[in-house]
Design a protein that fits this description.
Elements: H1 26-35, E1 38-45, H2 51-61, H3 67-72, E2 74-77, E3 80-84, H4 94-99, E4 106-111, E5 116-121, H5 129-136, E6 141-147, H6 154-165, E7 170-176, H7 185-202, E8 206-211, H8 235-241, H9 246-250, E9 254-256, E10 259-261, E11 269-273, E12 278-280, E13 284-288, E14 292-301, E15 304-306, E16 308-310, E17 314-319, E18 330-333, E19 339-350, E20 362-366, E21 369-382, E22 387-390, E23 399-412, E24 423-428, E25 433-443, E26 459-463, H10 469-478, E27 483-485, H11 491-500, E28 503-507, E29 514-519, E30 525-530, H12 535-552
Parallel strand pairs: 1-5, 1-6, 6-7, 7-8, 26-28, 27-28
Antiparallel strand pairs: 2-3, 4-5, 9-18, 10-11, 11-17, 12-16, 13-14, 13-18, 14-15, 14-17, 19-23, 19-25, 20-21, 20-24, 21-22, 21-23, 24-25, 26-29, 29-30
Helix pairs in contact: 10-12
């Protein structure tokens, strides 16, 4: 079926501006903008389903692009009207423009009179699934595009599953290219039945199907006269009206402590971003994992004190009692606490070219804590059938289920209940690369006596004699230590590895002497130089320093 190039008229002149003689006040405008809420949404789907074209059309019709941007992507054809290549408004990388595909996640901002939006335009190719996970991880709504001519394809099914896996509660199935099927109600109805069946299987709580033509603008911003049988909202109408963040405020209160603020002896506050729930002055709270209790004395923010605060505000709490809380701890209401666990089941998306290795110890970053973790993969997901198959490994972009065991207890919720305390990332300690993203599905609660385990501090060795590293590594592994050999010279990476309890060996300049670095009680580096550098002397000194540090240090 042939299709003529659309003739795109310029947007109508703005006629809804009120006529008034009163001066325009920028303060009033900024205040009105501040009152608008923000919706983060992502687009997903198979290759050539029209994701970038849809976003370009959405930006253009909502007047959120500059004139020079439009001119840059406008093509002239002999004997035909100029046509805008909407996809190029979002395909920002040169490789994307050359290949006509989306590779990286492109973030775009626009606003209407009702709401502000951040769009994550994610790739459709299978090899860029990890980029799709990145873009969707903070989204509150997902638009999954489906080509009206082809129906649900494997990658569309994959992205719908990932949207479900990432806890996105609102999903829009945009049946695109309806102009190429003559805006057939029967075709739309069949795709709608298939999509609703898939949503039920994936346990997606809300899925809305909208027939659109991204190229021509049908049902994107304005209602199309060519779909009189469709009585639902346009895409923009739905984006402006869908409820957002309501689950965050109704969920139990969680505040991962990011920093302890003590400017003077009369003030001690615990700062962080509220992950979920509402907190009020006078509320009874518990600090975890210690289990110490108190009440909220005040809630401080950059703009002053508040009587109450809610997710996702950043606040500083002061308490009525002097209790021991530090970075990595979690504050919650006494009546509804998370599970304290060192053993849980999780869904895992593998993000690295190097496959998962069960024998390897990874760093697991959860909220404001970083701990050592070992994982055993039990199943891999078959995207074609959405069924699980037995497996022990995962490769790049594969999704599976794993049993996770951590070196210290974590305070977790199921991901479906809380995306912050129910999620984590895996880091390869040797190169600091993020290799996996996980979502907690089920956790085994520890007994009260087990909830606070002894902190194990690590030690970092700066070794000018590289030939001694294999012997030292074998000796430490034989004694049950977790060892990392790396050339990374970043102090913040060293500190993370030491707090997690690793023995870290770093090749140093041959002109220097061997140094052993540990963390003192304040989290600062403490160095000792060794004159003798044989492996037995080094191992004995490391063992001695670790014991001393563990006696003086506390859990970070």
């Amino acid at each position: 079926m042939s299709q003529e190039s659309p003739v795109l008229a310029e947007p109508d002149e703005i006629t809804d501006m009120p006529e008034t003689s009163e001066p325009f006040e920028i303060e009033d405008f900024l205040a009105a903008e501040q009152q608008k809420d923000l919706l983060r949404f992502t687009t997903a789907g198979s290759v050539d389903d029209g994701k970038s074209t849809l976003i370009g059309r959405l930006l253009y019709d909502s007047r959120s692009v500059y004139e020079d941007q439009v001119k840059a992507v406008t093509r002239s054809h002999a004997g035909e009207a100029d046509a805008i290549d909407f996809a190029q408004l979002t395909d920002g990388l040169r490789a994307e423009r050359e290949q006509g595909i989306t590779i990286d996640v492109a973030y775009r901002f626009f606003a209407t009179t009702k709401r502000k939006f951040i769009i994550a335009d994610t790739p459709g190719h299978e090899q860029y699934t990890r980029n799709m996970v990145t873009g969707a991880s903070t989204a509150e709504l997902a638009i999954v595009l489906v080509d009206a001519r082809k129906g649900i394809l494997t990658q569309s099914r994959r992205h719908a599953f990932i949207s479900s896996l990432l806890g996105i509660r609102h999903v829009v199935a945009a049946i695109n290219k309806m102009d190429l099927v003559d805006f057939s109600e029967e075709v739309f109805a069949q795709h709608q039945r298939d999509l609703l069946s898939l949503a039920e299987k994936l346990e997606i709580p809300e899925l809305l199907c909208i027939p659109i033509s991204a190229l021509n603008g049908d049902n994107v911003v304005t209602r199309s006269e060519r779909t009189p049988w469709y009585l639902g909202p346009t895409l923009l109408e739905h984006l402006e009206s869908v409820p957002i963040a309501e689950y965050l405020q109704h969920a139990p209160f969680r505040l991962p402590v990011q920093r302890v603020i003590r400017p003077h002896q009369n003030f001690r506050g615990f700062a962080g971003q509220i992950a979920s729930g509402i907190i009020k002055v006078g509320d009874a709270i518990v600090a975890l994992p210690s289990g110490q209790t108190s009440r909220v004395q005040s809630i401080q923010t950059f703009d002053g004190a508040l009587e109450s605060a809610f997710a996702p505000q950043s606040i500083t709490l002061t308490l009525e009692d002097e209790i021991d809380i530090s970075r990595g701890d979690l504050i919650s209401h006494q009546a509804n606490t998370p599970v304290s666990t060192a053993n849980f089941e999780a869904s895992l998306v593998w993000l690295h070219a190097e496959p998962f290795t069960a024998e390897k110890t990874y760093l697991l970053k959860h909220a404001s804590q970083t701990v050592k973790a070992r994982l055993n993969v039990t199943h891999r997901l078959d995207i074609e059938t959405i069924e699980q198959e037995s497996a022990q490994s995962l490769s790049l972009n594969e999704i599976g289920k794993a049993i996770v065991k951590t070196s210290r207890p974590l305070m977790v919720d199921a991901y479906r209940d809380n995306r912050i305390t129910g999620s984590f990332i895996l880091i390869d300690p040797a190169n600091n690369a993020t290799v996996g993203a996980g979502m907690v599905r089920h956790a085994e609660a520890l007994e009260p006596a087990e909830t606070r385990s002894e902190q194990k501090t690590g030690a970092l060795l700066l070794l000018p004699q590289e030939n001694i590293i294999p012997t030292l590594e074998a000796a430490f592994l034989a004694s049950g230590e977790d060892v990392v050999v790396t050339r990374i010279q970043k102090p913040e990476v060293w500190r993370t590895l030491l707090r997690a309890g690793f023995i870290v060996m770093v090749p140093a300049d041959a002109s220097t002497q061997t140094e052993i670095v540990t963390l003192n009680a304040g989290g600062e580096f403490a160095k000792q130089t060794l004159l003798e550098a044989d492996h037995e002397t080094i191992q004995q000194k490391v063992t001695q320093l670790k014991k001393e540090a563990e006696q003086n240090d506390r859990e970070f």
